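Pilot study result, target chain (220 residues):
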Amino acid sequence: MSAPDHDKDGNPLIQRYTANDRSNHWITAICFILLAVSGLAMFHPAMSWMAVFLGGGQWTRILHPFIGLVMFASFAGLVFRFWHHNHIDTSDKQWLKQMDDVLNNREEKLPKIGMYNAGQKILFFVLVASMLGLLLSGIVIWRAYFAFYFPIEIVRLGALLHAFCATVLIMSIIVHIYAAFWVKGSIGAMVRGTVTYGWARKHHPRWFEEVIRKGRTKLD
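Predicted structure:
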């Protein structure tokens, strides 16, 4: 039987995410869920029942922007931590050209992937853009503190931009969740923080080689 810190073949598990990384991720995820349901509750009367998750309509209007600030701050921590892993390189461009191989799980034909593949990197930058758009537009339409500083036309444009960025963010997170289930072991990596040798070698071979070359199971 393998030890808790080793895989079934006796290899030590590779640390993919630290405790701080995982905490940041789950704080962001919880805030996103609360913001999605409260935002939809305020967006259309047919979804107003979702306000119950934050204690009703009045509390939803009060808490929504503050939770948004918490989510942005938590997400900013993730951006700072993983920015250098998300630079687009030549391997990523080739990965995108071989989308047919990606969709058919022919990973042996793909270029060696680092800590993240091109799809994950693109999603990263979409999330960054969406979060920035939500923050800036959210400040403009935050009636209790800032909206009265702006002309009504700007507030209306801010509301439109906020709805657009929220839609993009929700769709992006759905893709993110689907991909996490599609690649078995991804969710476990964000829960436990570790992956097996086999998982790393199969899905992120260049990252795996960097870990092994440095002679440790942790990569900064």
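One observation from the pilot: The beta strands are 14-15, 194-195. A full batch analysis is planned for the follow-on phase.
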